[in-house]
């Protein structure tokens, strides 16, 4: 491989990483603006995100438990 093809490969990889980073930064920005987090301090944003995470986790965990209970109670019962 000559030097120009190596440089063009590096540029393509850098541009691809840059595009992914820009996409992630755009979604973080939209999340902050949608929920009004842009006006909070960093620690308030962290508390809000933790609260949201635990709320979503408990909803998921509850639905999995109810689903497994219903599955074992009604679909897998031998009687």
UniProtKB/TrEMBL annotation:
Membrane topology: Multi-pass membrane protein
Endpoints of the signal sequence: none
Keyword flag Cell division: no
TM ranges: 20-38, 50-71
Record-level GO cellular component terms: endoplasmic reticulum membrane
Cellular compartments annotated: Endoplasmic reticulum membrane
Keywords tagged on the record: Endoplasmic reticulum, Membrane, Transmembrane, Transmembrane helix
Pfam family, one: SPT_ssu-like
Record flagged with keyword Acetylation: no
The name this protein goes by in its record: Uncharacterized protein
The species this protein was found in: Amborella trichopoda
